[in-house]
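Lab notebook: predicted structure, single chain.

Context: the supervisor wants predicted structures on file for every construct in the current expression panel, including those that have not yet been purified. This is the next one on the list. No modifications to the sequence; it matches the entry in the shared construct table.
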Amino acid sequence: MALIPGRLSWQEIALTQAGVITIRDAVAAGLPRTEIRAHLTAGRWRQPFRGVLVTDLTPPADPQRLWAALQAVGPDAVLAGGCAAALAGLAGHPTEPVTVLVPAPRRVNAPPGIQVRHSARLETSEIDALRLPRQTTPSRSVVDMAEWAPTRAQAHRSIVDAVLQGVVSLGGLRGALARRGPISRRTLIAETLDVLESDAPRLTEIRLRRLEQLHDLPAALCSVDGPAGEPVSRLRVRFEPWSVQAQIATTVTEPLTRREPDGELVVLLPARLLRQAPDEAAALLTGALRERGWVPPRRGAPAAIAS
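Prediction complete. Output recorded below exactly as produced.
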């Protein structure tokens, strides 16, 4: 088929959409309806929804399923919620049914297996410009996912997992929440973000300094791997000259002390431990320091190194 200048062939259109194309676009690109029927009759193509064709049966089914859902709903549709969050990297959460977001005034009869939701607030900046098929940004996807979750517990977990898996940042979620408008779980989402932020290195270091004062610990040298206000970042704490290091992070689930090949003691602490059980955290640090020869000072006296 000779290409019309300035237009794509139906093959080129389908290639960019995992082999999916609407009948309307295929015909407009020059493909005769008789040829479409011949491919369908022979089983070389599939028609998952009215007006939608799958012209290549070899790629994985998931991308085709998402493309087909968008094509079935229409050109202004975007993938949203759990399926969009999964495309951004969120693991461990349901991706069914395929959720498609359309502008509020539009009325759509949802095809089988597709959940159509409406939004009066969907800015251009909330549509991911870096990913195909067309989908909401990760932050908007996660906020919507929490709002649409069957239970409050699932809503909470989706926010926590998205942050701790590095799919979204706290700042991105707060911005998406501010733009979202009236939603029923705004308070739940905001409170979840506040708790996550409380375990970020910025506030964790403040709690560590309190422990130093209350338990007469030596002053530590602190550094942060990543942004100080994000809970996925890690607070690294060094006690010199005792060769004791503490790594404090939200991603650490249980406290652990290990000895490195060079003899350094590394104490792994969950960030929540400094918030929920500070005395336990102090005991673990004290134990590691004592093992390396640190002697707790008498009140008013400087720390000493055992000979």
